Amino acid sequence: MAKEEEAVEVSEAQIAVHWREEQYYQPSAKFVGQANAADPAIFERFKEERFPECFKEYADLLTWDAYWHTTLDTSNAPFWKWFVGGRLNASYNCVDRHLAGSRNKAAIIWVPEPESEETKAITYQDLYTRVNEVAALLRDFAGVKVGDRVTLHLPMVPELAITMLACARLGAIHNQVFGGFSGPACGERIADSGSHILITMDGYYRNGELLDHKVKADQAVARASQDGVTVDKVLVWRRHEGQYASQTPMIEGRDFFMNELLPTYRGAVIEPVSMPAEAPLFLMYTSGTTGRPKGAQHSTGGYLAYVAGTSKYYQDIHPEDTYWCFADIGWITGHSYIVYGPLALGTTTVIYEGVPTYPDPGRPWRIAERLGVNIFHTAPTTIRMLRKVGPDEPSKYNYHFKHMTTVGEPIEPDVWRWYHDVVGKGEAAIVDTWWQTENGGFLGSTLPALQPMKPGSCGPGVLGVYPAIYDENGEVVEAGSGRAGNMCIRNPWPGIFQTIWGQPERFVEIYYRKYCRDKASTDWHDWPYFAGDGAVQAADGYFRILGRVDDVINVAGHRLGTKELESAAITVSEVAEAAAVPVLDELRGRAVEMYVALKPGIQASKEIEDKVSMAIETEIGKMARPKNVWIVSDMPKTRSGKIMRRVIAGISNFTDVGDITTLANPEIVEDVRHHVQSEKVARGEVPRELTTQEAAEIRAFGQAE
Ligand code: WT7
Description:
Oligomer: single chain
Strand order of the largest sheet: 12-11-8-6-7-14-15-23
Structural class: alpha/beta
Helix content: 25-40%
Shape: globular
Largest sheet: 8 strands, mixed
Bound molecules: 5'-O-[(S)-butoxy(hydroxy)phosphoryl]adenosine
C-alpha cells in the first residue's frame, strides 16, 4: 500500500491523507439480475426528505402485534425512540412466523470444529421446539421475567442462538459475553448488567483442542460477587451429551446441566411476550474511553427492523440462500448478521464452531462447498490469515459465492483484491461494511447491485443514514478534499443503541457532546453522532475509514480499550505504571504492546514481563495478549503527568514520535527508543514502513483523551 500513497502535507493539527484512487469494480450482471435492491428508485425512497418515514419499509419486514403510531420520537434527545406504540416479539419474528411456509427448512446449520463430527441442521420447526423448551426452563426453573438480564457466556454452538431467542421470547434482556473473554471479564459484565443467571457450556473446540470453559463460570461468579452481584444459578450446556468437558466440579444448588433439566419441559409452548418496540432486546458490552466496559443497550423494534432491512438489501439475503457469516455471535456482527437479521428473513444461517485454519486452510472452502454456501461474510483478519497460509486453497473447491462481506477493520486494497479474485472467484459482489457495536447494523457500505465497489473504501452512507466528516471546530470537511476528520452520522437510525446500560450521562458525553449544537434541542439535526473513527471522503462520496481516534486498539477485529489493558497490567504487584499502544501487525491489523514502569527498587526481568502478559490474559482474554511487554525506567509524560502514548506508539512502530518539547522528561524518549528498537531489530520485528494513513493514526493515538 505504501507505493500507492504519497504524502502531501503532514501537520499535527490537520492531517491530509492522499492516496491514488482505486479503480471501481462492477458487480456481475448475474448478481444484479437477482438482487433484492436492483432498482435505483430505492435511493428516492430513502432520501433525506423522506426521513424518518423511509424506515417504515424496514419495519414492514416484521410482524407486529400492534402497529406503531410514531416513527421517530425525538422529544428526549438524544435518547431516540423508534416505532413508538408498536409491539412485537423478536423470537416470534425469527421463528414462529416462518413455520407456516418453511417448517422443514434448515434455520441453522451448525458445523462443529472436529471434521469427524456430524454437521447438524436445525429446521425452523426444531428451532421452534427448542426455543420454547428453553424459554419454559428459564421461566419456570430459573425464574426469568420480563426485563431481567441474563448473561450468556457461550461458544459458537446452536445453543447460543437458541438461548438468545428463548430470552427474547420471554422479554428478558440477553447479555452474551464473547466466549473468548476470561472469567473475570465475564464477571464484570454480569455485575454491571445485574444478572443473576449465567448460562454457559462445559467446553468447546478451538484449534483441535477441547477447551475447559466451565472453569471460567466459577471465576465469573466470584468476580461478580466481589462487584456486589450474586449469581443464583449457573446453567451449563454440555458440548457432548452424557459427558462433562470440564475439570471443575458442579456446585450443588447453583450449577445445573441444561440437558438434564430440559426433559421436564418437553413440548412446552411459551406464548411469545408482546414487547413494546422500545423494550431492550439485549446488551452488548464494548470497550473504550474508560476502564469500565459499557453495555450498549439495543431495542427490540428498531434494532430488529434495521437488521432485517440491511440483511435484505446489503447482504442480499433471500429466503432460499445459504448464508454464512464467519464471525462470532459474541460480537455485534454475530447478533445482527448471524442470528437476528438472517432468521428474521427466514433464511438458512450457518454457524461454525472453530478457527478458520483447522485442520488446514481449506476448511472454510470445504464447508462452503459441502453446504452450498452462496453468501459469505468475514473480517479482514481472517482473510489475511487464509491468504497467508492457503493462498490457492479456494480454487480447489467447487463453491460459488454471489456475495461477500468484509467487516470490522480497514481492509488493505491488496487483501481486498485477493478476497475478490480468489475467494470470490471474481463472481461475488463485495460489501465493505463499516459500523460499530453501538450501531446495531451497517452504516457505511455500497448497495451491492447499484453502487460499484472500491477496494479499501466502505462506500457512502447506507440507505437512510447521512454521514459527514467534521473537523475539530465542528465544521463539515469537504468531500474529496483529502482532509481527514471525525466520522459522524447526522441523523438517528432505527438500529442505534438506546443508551449505555445504567450510564445515560456517559452515553450523551461520549457520543453526542462533541458536536451537539444545542443541548436543549429536540431536533435531531442538532445532534450528530460522533463515531470515534477518523475518515476521509473521496469526491465520489465514498468514505475510507482510517481507524479509531480514541484510545481503542482494534486487534483482529477485537475492540480493546487501553484503560482495560493498563488496569490489568497494574494488577501485577511489581508494576507501578502501564501504557498500552497499537503496533502494526501483518495478520491482526494491529497488536498490543505494553510499556510498564516498575515500583522503586524492583529489577526488570523476563518473569515480570510474563506476569504482565498473563495478567492481561486472565483479566481480559487470550485475544488481548500483548505482542511485547517493555519494561522501561520511566514513561514519557507531559508536565501534568499524563503518559504520552503517541510517543511510545511512535517508538513501537519505528515512526516519528512527533513533538516532544512539551514533555516533562524528554530525555527518556531516546532511552526508551534505543531499548525497544534495538531489541526489536534483534528479534527481527522491524515493521514495514508505515503509510501516511497509518502514521497519522499512530500520531493521533491517545490524543482524544
Ligand atoms: C470499530 C467498531 C461492527 C462490527 C464489528 C466491529 C472498525 C468496523 C470497519 C470497516 C474500517 C471498520 C472501526 C469501528 N471498523 N468496520 N468496514 N472498515 N474499520 O465492531 O467492535 O464495535 O468496532 O471497528 O474502527 O469504530 P466494534
